[in-house]
Amino acid sequence: MNQSRQISRNLSFAIAIFTFLCAVYLLSYSGVFHSGDEIYYVQNALNYLNGSTDNPGKGGPFVLALSVVSLAVQLIDHVGAIQALFLLNIPVTAMTACFIFLLGVELGYDRRAAVLVALLFGLTTPAWVYSKALFREPWAAAGLIAALYFAVRFRKNRSFFSLTLAAACSAIAVTTRTTTSVVLPFLLLYTLAAILETRRATPQRRIRRVPLLLFALLLIGLAAANIGLVVDQYRPLAPKLLQVLTYAKALSGILASPGRGLLIYTPVLVMSLVGLYPFYRRHRREALVICGSFVVYVLMLAAYLKWWGGWGWGPRFLLPFLPYLMLPIIAIVQIVLIEKRMLWAGVLLVALGTLGGVIQLTGVVVGPSMPAFNLDDPQLTFDLSSAPLAWRLAVWDPGSLDVAWLHLQGKPAVAISILAPTLLLVALSAGILFYDRRPTHTTRREALLLISALVLCLATSAWSLHQYSRGDLRYTTPDGFREALRYVLDHATEDEILIVVRNKYEPGPYITYYDGSRVQDPHIYRSRVYNECKIDCLPYDEAISDEWLVRPDHLDWPNRIRSRYKSIWVIAVNDGSEETRLVEEAIGASANSVVCQSTSPEVRLCMYSN
After folding, report:
1. Which of 190, 191, 172 is nearest to 180 (CA)?
2. pLDDT in tens, 221-231
3. Which residue pairs, CB below 8 angstroms and at least 24 apart, start in 542-546?
4. Per-residue pLDDT, 539
5. How far apart are CA 430 and CA 17, in angstroms?
6. Domain residues of the chain, as ranges?
7. What is the reported pTM?
8. pLDDT digit string (tens) for 244-266?
9. Helix/strand number for the chain, H first, E second
10. What sections of 395-521 are H helices per DSSP?
11. DSSP code of residue 442
């Protein structure tokens, strides 16, 4: 087959996979915060826009992308910046699946096998759940699989361009998640082995390899520097290794515990173990890169003090390696689907894939129960009640599904104007993906369909954001909040600060800070409850970084901000709760004067002057 036609054929499949997964992810999109970590990244992104350097470089390209999207959305009316930001990981996760497909084809597997494994990654692993969250792990996953793809391309064509792209993708992964530096030595050794191959090499070709070798050595130096940062971050490594039982428990928790086990939340990875040997027989170097980097990373993660990862769906810290672990499955699919052997493996793959899809579906649509999501105690990860299906099904409530097209206004109500076009896009993209194509090249009709699907994907996203800006979300603004906010907008000055106190989840109220100097900014930063308020956020501040979740025994934060502002405005929602009362008492403890009024039974507005 002509090489250009083959590339065209592969690209059309990749675009079809991308469009289909984006459509599915738009259907499960929620557009609301689930974790304080997400708010941290948004605040850090605002630092870039406001010139703050409180946390320089934290999050790397991920936070930079958040900043760019925030800046772009400010130019568009009727679109919430936070809602737009929550779209960011959708194309990134879909693109990761595309690279799995492209890498599978590059390694010589049938396109049908590669397509199936790409879809398994997108729909039966925690990647689906994290596509609707604002975490940096999806970016690291995309960077790692893209780096391996371009490294394989470089091994075949010795193209400096492929090597440069591999280095760039590695940089994206490492700067986004520093711990992924453990993969770099394996990728660099893989690349170095390709450079040093001398079979059939003329003297002229050997000379041309000198710049490539120098470039690879430079990357090795950069990798060593990053690994130094990782080792410094994981200082408990040595003492943890000495505690053999503790270390073994951490390993078992990472791999097989009910609350965070990799094999529990991603059962399809059992097929990776089955397919590892046939994959190794065909691609030894690639198998060594996958196994070596994964083993080193898991051993290092087990030595981390907080190996269970806090808030997350399954092993969040292992998400960057999921694309690597999916590659051996292609070998099994090739044997079953193309070579018609090992049919028992095909039956097992279907069963595990179905189970994995159900597990991810519960994580996607059921409203998050924060105490279960945020496992602060590692002992909870070994509790059967923490298993993905156990507590998810226990809190099942059709009226609180974590999807944006279902909003609550006294009772569940489906936003047909959003759901209908999204379902249409899913059906259209699925039809394009499974369309009976020519095996040799992409026809004009197929190209037109692919372009139309991409345009419809963008149009559906824009239409949904426009509808959400009109209040078509399940969370509605409490009566009286808009009046209180409007009063603050009209009267606040640059030396004052607004604090919104609201009950987000137990054990206390959740506070949102707004800087008086930017309170006149009309651009929208939507929060979990106040999806209609138009106000800008205060840049992330180290002095109050630990005070997002306010507890009765941790209420000294007003003293740290009182010296910075002349007055403190407080809008308290659900007035009368014990937690809200404690927060108001802490703010007003040393105020010279307090003026309060209730704008509704749920909302109370106070001004505390120093």
Report:
1. 172
2. 555 555 444 54
3. 542/54, 542/55, 544/513, 545/40
4. 29
5. 9
6. 86-400, 481-609
7. 0.76
8. 667 788 888 888 888 888 998 99
9. 25, 7
10. 416-433, 444-469, 481-491
11. -
